[in-house]
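User: Hey, quick favor. My workstation is busy. Could you predict this chain's structure for me?
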Amino acid sequence: MPQSKQIFYDPDRKRWRRLRFILDSSVILVTLLIVLFVFSVVRGSSAPGVALPDLKRPYHKLTDNQKRKPPRRANTHRKTVVPASQVVLNSDEGIRGAFYVQWDAASFASLKEYYPQIDLLFPEWMHALTADGRLQAATELNTLYDVIDENGKAEAVDDKVMSFLKGEKAQTEVFPLVNNFDPTTNKWNPDTAKFLGDPAARARFIHEVLTFLGSDHYKGLTLDIEAYPDESRDDYGQLVQELYSALNSRGLKLYIAVPVNDRTFDYAGVSKISDGLILMNYDQHYPGGDPGAVASQDWFVKNLQEALKVIPKDKIICAVGNYGYDWAMKKDQKPGSPPEDIHGVTVQDAWLEASDSEADVNFDDDAMNPHFAYLDGDVRHDVWFLDGVTAMNQMRAAHAMGIDTFALWRLGSEDRSLWAVWDKPFEAGAPQKLSAVPPGQDVDDEGEVDEVSFADKRTLVYEISLRYLRRVVICLKRVPTL
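Assistant: No problem, here it is.
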């Protein structure tokens, strides 16, 4: 039987060529896959054609009720829960007020942080600038508009203060302030005399005030009419009388901001037709005059002594300042000539200016106000300001005369150490609380804190016999911005 061929015998090697082709193709394919994998890892991209589902975390935005809020701080100067406006002024329960302004975002930042220590808030919102007595307010672009529209309804003048206080369930009572200062010109209104002397204009003004106060939970009004001519004083008194009667009949209060030591002002008469006079016990030296203390201690005390002679104690709210002025004078400028420039400064501004100029801040022995000076080219700058130390000294002097109702001018410009003694400045340990000063803040237009920019420390020498701080060494130190 002849021998048969082997089953797998392939003399022409056809199967080997096919196998070799398959193996070579597999090696190339595997190589390409490896290269593609390495390339994907390096580039951080997934392989094409592979759709992986997005992994979503179960994150959700916190609601307002879920957000963690700092505990509400209670004030320490109140003894009862009676609304502050119902407490007899300068009784055994000290009341604290503060002025608020829209044109400085730091004012809202201070309000948010220190509102538990503020019983009465006087927000500068509205202006009486026309001869017909219309209420006006200013937009963020500093243009005026009528507060009461053509349909007789009140327009919004602020979208922060009331909503914030309501959200915090604050006990702070709000008394919107109306003045005759034109924010677009930075001057007191020259038409005030026409407005005061026109019965129809006064009636319109009072009607619009009542309409506005009825638009929210306001407790009354603060009136600040200044720089009117002497011949309009009777007309001014008539406005206050008419306004007081209208507010009082509706259970609303009327507070009047008044200058100090004005011998032509009828303090006794106006105190009878108002619920309180806010004595603006500052601006001893001011723009337009020579450089000097903003409110020296003796000057402050004398003004209060004179006021107590003609104003009942239960009608006095003593306002203390925390701000300053920078007078810029050329070195060869003649005495009495207008300064090269003058502008207001916050306490924070003053410290920064002293730090930048490397000037020593001195606590003037006579005035008991801080002061420093420096040269910028051929221009000399004299900076005087009021701070936490001056506030404590002034409040202590007032307390010795039976005054314990105070208002701060103003939120946003103050020395933040003031709040440590604001409630009880007359306590024995109060001076030591001023030795550490909280860092200052820069805020955006919404009143939110952007960065910490500055801090300082004080070395205090306390003269017990006089109850005041008389020598203060201020050590300035820059804090790096965050």
